[in-house]
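Journal club side-thread
Mid-discussion, someone asked how the predicted structure for our own chain would compare to the paper's figures. Pasting it here so we can look after the session.
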Amino acid sequence: MSGFTLHALTAGQGILAISQMPGRSGDYAADLATVREWKPSYVLTMTPEAEMIPHGAMNFGAHMQDSGTRWAYLPTDDYGVLPEDLAAEWARASAQCRAALRGGGRVLIHCMGGCGRSGMAALRLLIEMGEDPEAALDRLRAKRPCAVETARQLQWAMAGEKQPDPVPRSLSDIPQD
């Protein structure tokens, strides 16, 4: 047993999970197998490469893509918030994650410890899906009490706003001429 855990909650019709970085448990191969068995539609990596290398996770994105999973790399410093120069990448990844969750898919967000950065991104994603910010934070912390570690992370997550569905959910959602 590797000690690697996915802290999951429902989001839309799907499941959103946060975790520590695969390999941090000391067994990258076992952690990778756990993630692959969970079959995520999308994975967001929040750790910079310098944090991944010592734990054998430098090829995690390629391993996910080889498994047919979409992957986005959003390197964020420990205890930090997403850098401004990654705002467009967040918007793209978030839209794809929301679509996956609304369609019943699974999304995994990880950072080094599975608390601050991953919790921050998960909270923002829940808010962008239309959840009440305080209720979303309570739900997230019920699964992972350490989710969102700093005031800056909480501020960044709470700055999210409900985003429109990327595609109509049904024929009745399509505007009629």
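Post-session note: Residues 7-163 form a domain with the Protein-Tyrosine Phosphatase; Chain A fold (CATH 3.90.190.10).
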